[in-house]
Design goal:
The protein is α+β, with helices and mostly antiparallel strands and about 325 residues long. The chain has helices at about 5, 75-85, 110-125, 130-140, 145-150, 200-210, 210-230, 235-255, 265-275, 300-310, and strands at about 10-15, 20, 40-45, 50-55, 65, 70, 90-100, 155, 170-175, 185-190, 280-285, 290-295, 315-320, 325-330. It has two domains: about 5-175, Ribosomal Protein S5, domain 2 (2-Layer Sandwich); about 185-320, GHMP kinase, C-terminal domain (Alpha-Beta Plaits, 2-Layer Sandwich). It binds ligand 2P0. The site of ligand 2P0 has 14 residues, from helix 6.
């Protein structure tokens, strides 16, 4: 079979979203999409993106369908351009991607989406890249996607302060899937897309938030303590530091007028606090959207899930656990 023919096979990859415990919020100045702070996340089973990629000589442009709708996203084309440059060919690609959870609403669909795309596109182009190089490729389009290449607990360092955009920065696994048994309950509060995407919200935060410098100064210490708590399997401290990172990120963004929380978000947070007051260890986090993700021990999950499902404005609760990294389905 000719090389060209190999490059025209359909390749399918699956990736899961990840939820940050220590949050990434803000970018280094300059090109390359390097984060300004380190982050640490858990990759989740129970929600996934499946992406098919085929380079096809009959196409006159890249064709991208996400959840059945034709889309143009410059970050998708940029990723495909990087793959074409490395593979030294000029074929356009057909990309078909489906999420089994709400898209662009703050449930990390760009993380799983770009992780699946990076893996499928490099394999479709017959590039033999290791996971770190694929993670670096995904990061250039969406930094959180670098983490979804790996399973379990994963970190992404900050970029260098005045680095070269050609520098590589990949995520890496900190602890495997079964290191700390956890259930993560995702309280879905809307099926709508978010009002402001994370990339624009980060820019606005950097420009307008009076607390942005404090966030940049303090986030590395929260990340370091949180990593130590994880490695010590200290679930309580891990939960407290996750909440600390969440509040620091949201307070910083809110001071720039960016409010992702809705009334159902606040009610779900109150539910977590009252569970804790009555002796059930549960901790919450929110990302760039109104959904609340609740961490608890697997044995407490049925009770916590029941309470959260009864909160006004919580549409449904998705039960997830630490999950695998991105993988090819052939
Ligand atoms: C995170 N978030 O660490 C943080 C917490 C949202 C809140 O990473 O601009 O979609 O594409 O690099 O990765 C969302 O940001 O941003 C995000 P870009 P991304 O998970």
């Amino acid at each position: 079979m000719s090389e060209r023919r190999d490059c025209e096979q359909v390749v399918t990859a699956v990736a899961h979203p990840n939820i940050a415990l220590a949050k990434y919020w803000g970018k280094r100045a300059g090109q390359g999409n390097f984060p300004a702070v380190p982050s640490l996340s858990v990759t989740l089973s129970g929600m996934s993106t499946t992406t098919h990629v085929q380079f096809d000589r009959t196409l006159a442009a890249d064709s991208v369908m996400i959840n059945g709708e034709a889309q143009y996203d410059s970050r998708v084309v940029a990723l495909l351009d990087r793959v074409r440059a490395a593979a030294e060919f000029r074929l356009f690609a057909r990309v078909v991607s489906v999420n089994d959870f709400p898209t662009a609403s703050g449930l990390a669909s760009s993380a799983s989406g770009f992780a699946a795309l990076a893996l499928a596109a490099t394999h479709a182009a017959t590039l033999e890249w290791d996971a770190a190089r694929i993670s670096d490729l995904a990061r250039r389009s969406s930094a959180s996607a670098a983490r979804s290449i790996f399973g379990g607990f994963v970190e992404l360092d900050a970029g260098q302060e005045s680095g070269d955009e050609r520098n590589m920065l990949a995520a890496k696994q900190v602890a495997p899937i079964d290191y700390l048994p956890l259930t993560v309950l995702v309280c879905v509060t809307t099926e709508q897309k978010k009002s402001i995407g994370s990339t624009d919200a980060m820019t606005k935060t950097a420009q307008k938030s009076p607390f942005y410098d404090a966030w940049l100064r303090d986030a590395p210490a929260i990340h370091a303590s949180l990593k130590s708590a994880l490695l010590a399997r200290d679930r309580q401290l891990l939960g407290e530091l996750t909440e600390a990172s969440t509040w620091a990120m949201h307070a910083t963004a809110m001071a720039a007028g960016i409010v992702y929380l809705r009334s159902a978000t606040i009610d779900a947070i109150e539910c977590v606090r009252s569970l804790r007051a009555s002796g059930t260890a549960a901790y919450m986090t929110m990302d760039a959207g109104p959904h609340v993700k609740v961490f608890t021990a697997p044995e407490d999950a049925p009770r916590v899930k029941r309470e959260l499902a009864a909160v006004n404005g919580v549409l449904r609760v998705i039960e997830t656990q630490p999950g695998e990294g991105a993988r090819n389905l052939l």
